[in-house]
User: Fold this.
Amino acid sequence: MAEEEQQEQLYDLIVPPGVPRKMIYDVVEKFDVEVVQRQERLSFANMEGDARDLLAFRGRKEVVEEVQDYLLARLREFVGE
Assistant:
């Protein structure tokens, strides 16, 4: 079997700036993802076209989708507090 066939496609979920570190640590502990750094172009306010290094969770598609749901629920709790 070729090495390419053995490698699984991974997906990234950008962590919105301002997410508390505790939530990032919780995600890494609960899910099979790694935290990576990605450069992304921003397109809002006065940052149009600026590139910033942002954090992302990287993992298998199904896991990243679970992380997205979990993180969104946690952020809604946090904002509601």
Residues 61-80 form the longest helix (20 residues).
